[in-house]
Design brief:
The protein has 193 residues and is of the alpha/beta class. The chain is 30% helix and 16% strand. The protein is built from seven helices and eight strands.
Length: 193
């Protein structure tokens, strides 16, 4: 499920030509900014401008019950390994009984038996309208987005806009939009611990 790792030579050539013509470059995250270090030519000034987020759809943010219950963990995104899914499933397995994992996202077009088994161990929803994804955020305790490589990751800002803390990696917009320890945590990629 590691699709999209390589652009065609034609696409790379077009991107390089666009960068060479630019008088200013805007990127959505510091991770995207770092990827521009590979540009072979002179770069125009680059600014990081994170994407916006929807307004909060509910009046108040529910608080977690004082009763001992599993931590309600949510993942929203494509169900490919670029999103770090195997590490999320490994972490949930290590915490079995103390977390209730919900995964929202479509499977890749090919059948992946290991993914099928992992999805059978959690609450899996293939797809929801956007407003229902925001509603799911309201009934969870944390969004986990362990992406290996993400130009931004809109789901991070969507969760934050709904008052949901986020655990994500430095390879997303997390370092640009989270206050570590206040509204979320940045964790290493490929590390279920």
């Amino acid at each position: 499920t590691m699709r999209g790792l390589r652009d065609s030579a034609l696409k790379v050539e077009r991107k390089d030509a666009e960068l060479a013509l630019a008088t200013r470059v805007l990127v959505a995250s510091s991770f995207s900014l770092k990827s521009l270090e590979m540009f072979p030519g002179d770069l125009a000034p680059v600014s990081v401008v994170p994407y916006g987020a929807p307004s909060q759809w509910r009046e108040s943010i529910p608080t977690k019950s004082s009763e001992r219950q599993p931590l309600r963990v949510l993942f929203v995104g494509g169900l490919g390994q670029m999103k770090g899914l195997s590490y999320l499933f490994a972490a949930a397995s290590m915490l079995r009984g103390t977390v209730a994992l919900t995964v929202i996202g479509k499977k890749p077009s090919s059948d992946v038996p290991v993914l099928n088994r992992a999805l059978a161990s959690c609450r899996w929803i293939e797809s929801l309208p956007h407003h229902e994804v925001l509603q799911e955020m309201a009934v969870h305790d944390v969004l986990v987005f362990p992406s290996l490589s993400e130009g931004f990751g809109m789901v991070v800002t969507e969760a934050l806009s709904q008052g949901l803390p986020v655990i994500t990696t430095p390879h997303t917009c997390g370092p640009d939009v989270l206050t570590e320890g206040e509204d979320g945590f940045i964790v290493p990629i490929r590390d279920p611990q």
